[in-house]
Structure formats: structure tokens, C-alpha cells
TrEMBL record:
<dbReference type="InterPro" id="IPR001917">
    <property type="entry name" value="Aminotrans_II_pyridoxalP_BS"/>
</dbReference>
<dbReference type="InterPro" id="IPR015421">
    <property type="entry name" value="PyrdxlP-dep_Trfase_major"/>
</dbReference>
<dbReference type="InterPro" id="IPR004839">
    <property type="entry name" value="Aminotransferase_I/II_large"/>
</dbReference>
<protein>
    <recommendedName>
        <fullName>Histidinol-phosphate aminotransferase</fullName>
        <ecNumber>2.6.1.9</ecNumber>
    </recommendedName>
</protein>
<comment type="pathway">
    <text>Lipid metabolism.</text>
</comment>
<dbReference type="InterPro" id="IPR005861">
    <property type="entry name" value="HisP_aminotrans"/>
</dbReference>
<dbReference type="GO" id="GO:0030170">
    <property type="term" value="F:pyridoxal phosphate binding"/>
</dbReference>
<comment type="similarity">
    <text>Belongs to the class-II pyridoxal-phosphate-dependent aminotransferase family. Histidinol-phosphate aminotransferase subfamily.</text>
</comment>
<dbReference type="InterPro" id="IPR015424">
    <property type="entry name" value="PyrdxlP-dep_Trfase"/>
</dbReference>
<keyword id="KW-0663">Pyridoxal phosphate</keyword>
<keyword id="KW-0028">Amino-acid biosynthesis</keyword>
<feature type="modified residue" description="N6-(pyridoxal phosphate)lysine">
    <location>
        <position position="208"/>
    </location>
</feature>
<dbReference type="GO" id="GO:0000105">
    <property type="term" value="P:L-histidine biosynthetic process"/>
</dbReference>
<comment type="subunit">
    <text>Homodimer.</text>
</comment>
<feature type="domain" description="Aminotransferase class I/classII large">
    <location>
        <begin position="45"/>
        <end position="343"/>
    </location>
</feature>
<keyword id="KW-0808">Transferase</keyword>
<keyword id="KW-0368">Histidine biosynthesis</keyword>
Length: 346
């Protein structure tokens, strides 16, 4: 895979945003180069200064936990920003195409449409696994990205590892593995495979297991040439200082996160079992994530009756291969009991 050929023509000569401050780091103490407020901010923190565009302190802390070098790490304003930047960096509007595997996370299609990039859909098999033949047939010389979500949203299952490896080995563009829910899965992450596959991009996020959805912080891990391209096209200060500060603090509390993962997985298994005993439930799909896909007799009426009880879940009954299904996030033990009680009421 030649990154020079893969990236869009119009960004080939772009340089990553950098400032004189980075160049003269440690040598200067008076900063009159960025038209900031030199007096301070109305807060204790020094929010009057622009943040580090490359977030090196935060990346360093992430690197210690993930074992991925800083130069293989990109941070986005949510993984949604990384998804959008992949389109902007690698897909020529009106010419290139990407492959998505429905039913899957909706943002890949939204981003494709916003960027005027053709979407090719290769549905998952009824087992919710990859249709490898269908994928091979859909690829042409203008296919730049394939999005594989594992564990997949909304189905909850992990994609068979060897199938993902087959796609990685046979596709000349980038294979984006979205691991937003990986912390809840039995299957291990693909970030250890980065050195083996120059065309691998792994997305992870602080929005799920890390409990920081409000911060908007996502990670993309990839070979250096891919990360360098993302750094060229990103807005200079895409991760704000408050996010960098708070995430650094949160990373010191990994024990709490691991504890929640354990509880969530136990609750998921318990909730799955309980749901399966309900008369309105036709099928509970096995989940490797923090949500459960459930087929019910009448999705809309179940959804509405839960709303009446003050419980919001997700109606996925109109989604390909998920007909009649609801997607339920695993709540706290108390929330799950309340949900089950509501579902038991006639
Ligand atoms: N990928 C998947 C599979 C998701 O389900 C979500 C959020 N629902 C995201 C990415 C978005 O994550 P972020 O909050 O980091 O933008």
C-alpha cells in the first residue's frame, strides 16, 4: 500500500500544522505570536493559551496503557472526527468509494454522504459475520476504505478474527476496525497487529468503557504514514485543553474503569438470561459489547410502553437484518431490574 497514492491529490503537499512554540520549546517564556489574551482567563487554569496541537502529554499517557507508540496514535474529537477525517484525507468526492457492512454503526454512511463519497453496502451474513465473497466483489480500484465494526453496533457480536485478517491481507486500501466496544469483548484488540498491516486503522474511544462520552475523545491507531496524513488534515486544535487535562486525570483511574467493565459484562450476561425468559422476547443475540440486541413480538409497542415508564431504549426494528429488534444498553443493576419489571408488566 502506497500512502502517497492513497491520499487525496489536493493534500499531498500539505504540511502538518506546527507553531514556532513547538520549534523553540523550552527556550521562550513570552508568547506574543498567537493573539491570545496575555492576561489570563477568568479561571484558575491557563485556558488563555491554545492547547498542544499534537497532544503529546496525553498521547504519552495513552501509549503507556495501550502499548502503542505516540507516532502511531491520532486523537480526534470523538472517534466520529477520525471517521470524518479518513474520508476527507483518502476519498476523492464523486470518484472514490468505501465499503460498509450493514447492519452497522450509522456514522460511516453519514460521513460518506457529507463528503460526497459513494457507499457500497455488503450486508453481513445472517450470522452477522463477514460476507467475504461479497466484499471481494464490491472492491474496485477506487475503493479506499472498508469499515469493520467489531464488536459490531447494533448486533453486539465480534467479527471472526481470521475473516478480518483475510480482508486486511487482500485489500489495498485502509481497513478501519472500529473497536469502540472492545473493552467488553472476549476477542482481543487488533492494535497489536499494527506492525504487521500497513493498511490497518484501529478506532477506539473514551466514550464507552472509559465513561467520558461528554468529553469527545477518540483514538485512531495506525502505521506512521497514515497517522501523518491524519495530522495534516485535522483542525489544528481539535482536542481542547479541558479535554486533554481531564483525560490525563481519568487515565490515572484505570482500576475504576476495569471494575465497571467487569460489572457491565456480568450484568450483560444476567440481563441476557432474564430477557430470554420473557414471553414477548423471541430472541436474545449474544453480545460482546455493553448492549444487547433483542427480537420481540412487537418492537414498536414494547418501545412505546417503556417510554411510558420513563425508560428509553433504541428501536432498531427497521434496520437491515435486525427486523423486529430493540437495542438495549446494559444499565446499572438497579436500572436493569427496573427495565425487566417494566417488560414483565402486561
Ligand atoms: N463507533 C461505534 C461503533 C459507536 O457505536 C460509536 C458511538 N455510539 C462511535 C464509534 C462514536 O464514538 P465517539 O463518541 O468516540 O465519537
Amino acid at each position: 500500500m502506497d500512502i502517497n497514492k492513497l491520499q487525496r491529490e489536493n493534500i499531498k503537499n500539505l504540511r502538518p500544522y506546527s507553531t514556532a512554540r513547538d520549534e523553540y520549546k523550552g527556550q521562550a517564556s513570552i508568547f506574543l505570536d498567537a493573539n491570545e489574551n496575555s492576561y489570563g482567563s477568568p479561571l484558575e487554569e491557563n485556558y488563555n493559551r491554545y492547547p498542544d496541537p499534537l497532544q503529546l502529554d496525553l498521547k504519552d499517557a495513552i501509549s503507556k496503557i495501550k502499548g502503542v507508540p505516540i507516532e502511531n496514535t491520532f486523537l480526534g474529537n470523538g472517534s466520529d472526527e477520525a471517521i470524518d477525517l479518513l474520508f476527507r484525507a483518502f476519498c476523492e468526492p464523486g470518484k472514490d468509494n468505501v465499503i460498509i457492512l450493514p447492519p452497522t454503526y450509522g456514522m460511516y454512511e453519514v460521513s460518506a454522504n457529507i463528503n460526497n463519497v459513494e457507499i457500497r453496502k455488503v450486508n453481513l451474513l445472517p450470522s452477522f459475520q463477514l460476507d467475504l465473497e461479497g466484499i471481494a466483489e464490491a472492491i474496485d480500484e477506487n475503493t479506499k476504505l472498508i469499515f469493520i465494526c467489531s464488536p459490531n453496533n447494533p448486533t453486539g457480536n465480534s467479527i471472526i478474527r481470521t475473516d478480518i485478517e483475510t480482508v486486511l491481507a487482500n485489500f489495498n486500501g485502509l481497513v478501519v476496525i472500529d473497536e469502540a466496544y472492545i473493552n467488553y469483548a472476549k476477542q482481543r484488540t487488533f492494535i497489536k497487529e499494527l506492525t504487521e498491516y500497513p493498511n490497518l486503522v484501529v478506532l477506539q474511544t473514551f466514550s464507552k468503557a472509559w465513561g467520558l462520552a461528554a468529553l469527545r475523545l477518540g483514538m485512531a491507531f495506525a502505521a506512521r504514514p497514515v497517522i501523518d496524513v491524519l495530522n495534516k488534515v485535522k483542525p489544528p486544535y481539535n482536542i481542547n485543553q479541558a479535554t486533554q487535562d481531564i483525560a490525563l486525570k481519568a487515565l490515572q483511574n484505570i482500576e475504576q474503569v476495569n471494575e465497571w467493565i467487569k460489572i457491565t459484562v456480568a450484568e450483560r450476561e444476567n440481563l441476557s438470561k432474564e430477557l430470554a425468559t420473557l414471553p414477548i422476547v423471541k430472541k436474545v443475540y449474544p453480545s460482546d459489547a455493553n448492549f444487547i440486541l433483542v427480537e420481540v413480538e412487537n418492537a414498536l409497542s414494547t418501545y412505546n410502553s417503556l417510554v411510558d415508564e420513563g425508560i428509553i431504549i433504541r428501536d432498531r426494528s427497521k434496520v437491515t437484518l435486525c427486523e423486529g429488534c430493540l437495542r438495549i444498553t446494559v444499565g446499572t443493576p438497579e436500572e436493569n431490574v427496573t427495565l425487566l419489571d417494566a417488560l414483565k408488566r402486561p
